[in-house]
Design brief:
The chain is largely without helices or strands and 31 residues long. It has no helices and no strands. It is globular, with a radius of gyration of 10 Å.
Length: 31
Amino acid sequence: VHVFNVPEFTGEPCESDEMLPTWFAHEQIPF
């Protein structure tokens, strides 16, 4: 699991060979 904290973001996340991005609010991280 890799966690990235991004305070500001523009654009649209997209899947790559290295990762499938999934976004969660801080209180909803599935740990």
